Amino acid sequence: MSKKKGEKKAKSGKKKELAALSAADLAPAITQAARSVRTALSRSISDSGLYAGQDGVILALSEDDGQTPGQLAARLGVKAPTMTRTIGRMEAQGFVERRADGHDGRLTKVHLTENGLKSVESIGQSVADCGAMAVRGFSDKEVRTLLKLLRAVEHNLQPEADED
Amino acid sequence: MSKKKGEKKAKSGKKKELAALSAADLAPAITQAARSVRTALSRSISDSGLYAGQDGVILALSEDDGQTPGQLAARLGVKAPTMTRTIGRMEAQGFVERRADGHDGRLTKVHLTENGLKSVESIGQSVADCGAMAVRGFSDKEVRTLLKLLRAVEHNLQPEADED
DNA sequence: CTTCTCGCCCTTTTTCTTGCTCATCGGCCC
DNA sequence: GGGCCGATGAGCAAGAAAAAGGGCGAGAAG
């Protein structure tokens, strides 16, 4: 697998190399952008008493209450163990609560508590505010383009959903 | 699905609200996309023996060897303590080594070891490969647009660089 | 037809890492 | 000597992978 491209600047004269260079820059770019978003969002929602990554659980539950950890994990794009621990912490914080499903003993339904329900709009506002700050100066078309490309990237990187 | 989005507050009915909704979707989208990139990259470089986040150190050092932790942190967009710990672990793994600067006692220069130097091309290949997979099906123009928007987002979220 | 066992699914636990914030220590410049 | 900058340490949390626990259902056997 020794694909010695040698020096990066040793271009073979193919335009594909230029695209490859851009693609190589994409991973760091998206990582840094996500870190910035994460940090900004973390500060926005810290006054609500929760941490980055918990906001998605609140919002997902506000749309469909009583989801299982697996559903939440799939919806938010994280692994099940991560969701389990996040739920456990949010339960300790009093935002959500776990209820055993009567029909399937292996299922656990996650419900918003009153406290969690009250924080929904605050969280939504913080997320929207953070997003608005991120796209400050963008045209509406640019925002939609960014959104579309982001989702395409996410779709391209799904290991299972490789329909190519 | 009962998506009662307009239920939280009575909006004023301006077209700006539509943009706000897109902006609200941006934070989750970029977070999930970054998670996918991080996971894919982590698997790509795991056979090189290092973890996600360490690749940037290797590549940055391959371009300019002997940088200080602070320079690396600024370059990779992480905080100094994070870089310190990452460097410490990579030093234990044998990829980099710390050397005290003779002129300034408070500075620490980070250098690539022979082992680290050998992994440079493999890492660069993994990053490029991951980026290429992420933008599969994208036109060259779309890739550049995504890159540009990503950097603009990052710039918008810098607390210090608030030139507004 | 009943019952038991095996396999699968979902959840949870554990261990590793990155990343941030706050706090500390040490060396340099004024 | 005092302030400042840079590096480091401690504590908190997310996220991933590997593995364990428990329940449900289907299929085989009586």
From TrEMBL, chains A, B:
Domain of life (superkingdom): Bacteria
Pfam families in the record: MarR_2
Gene Ontology molecular function: any one: DNA-binding transcription factor activity
KW Isomerase (keyword) present: no
Organism, scientific name: Rhizobium wenxiniae
Keyword annotations of the record: DNA-binding, Transcription, Transcription regulation
Domain HTH marR-type positions: 23-155
Protein name (Swiss-Prot/TrEMBL): DNA-binding MarR family transcriptional regulator
PROSITE patterns registered for this protein in UniProt: HTH_MARR_1, HTH_MARR_2
